[in-house]
Amino acid sequence: MFNQSNRLRAVTAAALVLSAAACGRIGAGERAVLLPPPVVDETATAATSEKAVLAGGCFWGVQGVFQHVKGVSQAISGYTGGNASSAHYEDVGLGTTGHAESVQVTFDPRVISYGEILRIYFSVAHDPTQKNRQGPDTGTQYRSAIFPRDESQKKIADAYVAQLDAAKTFGAPLATTIEPGKTFYRAEDYHQDFLVQNPSYPYIVVNDLPKIENLRKMFPDRYASEPALTAVSVSVR
Question: Does 58 participate in catalysis according to the annotation?
Answer without folding.
Answer: yes
